[in-house]
């Protein structure tokens, strides 16, 4: 049985697997050329067969070279509780993965693998960005490696693997009336933009029609809607129709997805079940949730509603489907926060807090200024002087948007969690636990030396937040606290 | 063997007062050679403009590439001076960037894997880069370039030891 203590290459069986994989790849790539040779043949069958044989020969040699390189460049071993592998031929890399960090072992055993009694092994850690390297091992080597990893895990989790306490499940059913009510409170302008895009695609397609068809449509519109053409009422009517259509589509989408939303929960897990025709279910484990996202726009605040989303930790092989679930309706955020942060979460005092400065307004306006300037220049160039009022209005609307963004943007540190507030027209609160913080970054801009303001970025396993234009001393104090908290 | 463990004085220092270990001076040569290779390729590609249009476009493109190259060299010099890393008791911090200087800290307990990399240019100058991968969705990797093989190995050893000790 191999003990993996010295660097080793994969065996002959792995070489055959790699060769067949590369051969399939190169053969597929050369098929078109072979077909071309076959059809271009001048009737001399021997010559054509020889040509095709030469192509297959070249493909085989190329696949052999690639397989040899793949096997040659890859060495792996286990040392001091770490899996170490050397890979890449030109840019040499040696990657070290502590065995304790491997949380999933994926194996594949297709027909070819079974023929040679081999197993393809892939290692997953919590890393979002990792190179997927497959080790092709014999069955005995695989068992030996698995034993080593299991031994490592056993020594670490002997204490933590106590059986979980009995946890009876509870059930909550969310109101469909609140769902519709909150769906109506959302920003539907985005839907209008999408619908506008869809209409413009149709318009582009129409413009590809023959001249006669266009004239026919034009004549029909003129005869029926002449009174509206280019009039303010006409434009307003089109806008209103688009809005109603987008609203109906939006409500349909929400009802299809979230109709009869129900929640079964215990202290460790939330299981949502929802959907009008096909019932979907989404599961959230308490320790995998990295952020609780709560959005409150003006109407939601007024009518006691809220939109809640639970963001989960993801790794490179995880799917993001569950993360798209949003809970529309009455403000249930207190329930979710109590479940996740503990009953006393609201009693905790602020440890540190920092608010964004005016830099947020200028940053928010920057993209609007660029976009509006380009639009005004284009409209002016084509002589559509009256229409320049649209980008100018958009730019003016950017000012209150920037002010609101600045007002909403702040960070508050509590004893066991932190809140990152952001959003422009709607206020968004993001609740995070210190344990979930993976990286902290502070970024200065060329203006920082004059303004004394910096940006603070916090990244978790599922979300990233940047709080801009914070006072440098406050940002650095929070930076230190964010790093020190999980150690306590 | 070279030992890279957190300096006693550094352990409890705030980020602002940390002494950042500079990257190896040979890294400047690596950056210059890499820039020369990249801009030479661009300059050769710009010659293709001769095939599609008048030679003025080609001259203009070559001028833009040359000016960009000179500006890039100036920036690289400044960037090199700012680059640095520091190890503390529970985390590793990297400082980099020129126009938007950044300080990034990754707690040891969040590191998932460590890679030591060498491309042909850095290999020629005897330098390596250490790539520290964590579980974050966006800032998922911290790459410290311009380290000697010994230093990169030593940092890797500190990190892996911390990770394995944390679990014992």
UniProtKB/TrEMBL annotation, chain A:
It comes from the Bacteria. Residues 73-125, 407-481 form the YdbS-like PH domain. It holds the Pfam family bPH_2. The chain crosses the membrane at residues 12-36, 48-72, 228-251, 374-397. Keywords: Membrane, Transmembrane, Transmembrane helix. Signal peptide: none annotated. PANTHER family: UPF0699 TRANSMEMBRANE PROTEIN YDBS (PTHR34473), UPF0699 TRANSMEMBRANE PROTEIN YDBT (PTHR34473:SF2). This is YdbS-like PH domain-containing protein. The lineage of its organism: Bacteria, Pseudomonadati, Bacteroidota, Bacteroidia, Bacteroidales.
TrEMBL record, chain B:
Keywords: Membrane, Transmembrane, Transmembrane helix. The chain crosses the membrane at residues 30-48, 54-73. It comes from the Bacteria. InterPro entries: YdbS-like_PH (IPR005182). The keyword Transmembrane applies. Signal peptide: none annotated. Residues 80-157 form the YdbS-like PH domain. PANTHER family: UPF0699 TRANSMEMBRANE PROTEIN YDBS, UPF0699 TRANSMEMBRANE PROTEIN YDBT. This is YdbS-like PH domain-containing protein. It comes from Duncaniella dubosii.
């Amino acid at each position: 049985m191999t003990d993996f203590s010295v660097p080793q290459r994969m065996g002959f069986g792995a070489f055959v697997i790699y060769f067949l994989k590369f051969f399939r790849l190169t053969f597929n790539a050369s098929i078109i050329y072979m077909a071309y040779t076959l059809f271009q043949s001048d009737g001399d069958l021997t010559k054509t067969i020889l040509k095709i044989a030469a192509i297959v020969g070249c493909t085989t040699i190329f696949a052999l070279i690639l397989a040899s390189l793949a096997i040659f460049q890859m060495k792996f071993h286990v040392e001091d509780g770490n899996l170490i592998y050397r890979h890449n031929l030109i840019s040499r890399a040696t990657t070290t993965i502590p065995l304790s960090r491997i949380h999933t072992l994926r194996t594949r055993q297709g027909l070819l693998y079974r023929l040679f009694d081999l197993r393809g092994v892939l290692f997953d850690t919590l890393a979002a960005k990792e190179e997927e390297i497959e080790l092709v091992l014999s069955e005995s080597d695989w068992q030996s490696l698995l034993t080593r990893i299991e031994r490592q895990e056993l020594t670490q989790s002997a204490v933590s693997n106590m059986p979980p306490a009995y946890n009876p499940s509870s059930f909550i059913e969310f109101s469909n009336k609140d769902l519709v009510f909150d769906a109506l409170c959302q920003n539907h302008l985005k839907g209008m933009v999408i619908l506008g895009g869809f209409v413009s695609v149709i318009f582009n397609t129409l413009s590809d029609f023959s001249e006669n068809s266009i004239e026919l449509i034009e004549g029909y519109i003129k005869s029926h809607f002449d009174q509206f053409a280019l009039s303010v009422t006409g434009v307003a009517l089109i806008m209103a129709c688009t809005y109603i259509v987008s609203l109906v589509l939006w409500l349909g989408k929400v009802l299809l997805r979230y109709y009869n939303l129900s929640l079964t929960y215990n202290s460790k897990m939330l299981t949502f079940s929802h959907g009008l025709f096909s019932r979907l279910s989404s599961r959230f484990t308490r320790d995998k949730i990295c952020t609780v996202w709560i959005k409150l726009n003006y109407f939601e605040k007024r009518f006691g509603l809220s939109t809640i989303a639970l963001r989960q930790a993801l790794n490179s092989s995880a799917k993001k489907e569950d993360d798209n679930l949003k809970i529309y309706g009455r403000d249930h955020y207190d329930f979710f926060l109590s479940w996740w942060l503990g009953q006393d979460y609201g009693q905790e005092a602020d440890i540190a807090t920092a608010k964004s400065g005016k830099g947020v307004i200028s940053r928010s306006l920057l993209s609007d200024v660029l976009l509006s300037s380009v639009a005004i220049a284009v409209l002016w160039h084509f002589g559509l002087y009256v229409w320049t009022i649209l980008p100018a209005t958009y730019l003016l609307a950017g000012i209150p948007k920037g002010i609101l963004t600045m007002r909403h943007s702040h960070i508050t540190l509590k004893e066991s969690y932190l809140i990152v507030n952001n959003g422009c027209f709607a206020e968004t609160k993001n609740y995070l636990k210190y344990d979930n913080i993976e990286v902290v970054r502070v970024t200065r801009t060329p203006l920082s030396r004059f303004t004394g303001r910096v940006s603070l970025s916090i990244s978790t396993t599922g979300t990233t937040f940047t709080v801009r234009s914070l006072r440098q001393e406050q940002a650095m104090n929070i930076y230190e606290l964010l790093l020190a908290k999980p150690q306590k | 063997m070279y030992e890279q463990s957190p300096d006693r004085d550094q352990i409890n220092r705030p980020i602002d007062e940390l002494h950042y270990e500079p990257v190896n001076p040979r890294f400047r040569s690596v950056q210059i050679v890499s820039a020369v290779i990249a801009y030479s390729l661009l300059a050769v590609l710009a010659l293709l403009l001769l095939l599609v249009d008048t030679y003025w476009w080609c001259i203009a493109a070559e001028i833009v590439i040359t000016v960009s190259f000179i500006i890039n060299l100036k920036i690289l010099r400044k960037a090199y001076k700012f680059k640095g890393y520091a190890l503390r008791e529970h985390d590793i911090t990297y400082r980099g960037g020129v126009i938007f200087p950044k300080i990034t800290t990754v707690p040891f307990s969040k590191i998932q894997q460590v890679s030591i990399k060498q491309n042909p240019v850095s290999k020629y100058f005897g330098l390596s880069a250490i790539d520290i991968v964590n579980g974050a969705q966006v800032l998922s990797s911290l790459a410290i370039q311009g380290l000697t093989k010994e230093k990169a190995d030593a940092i890797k050893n500190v990190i892996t030891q911390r990770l394995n000790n944390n679990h014992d």
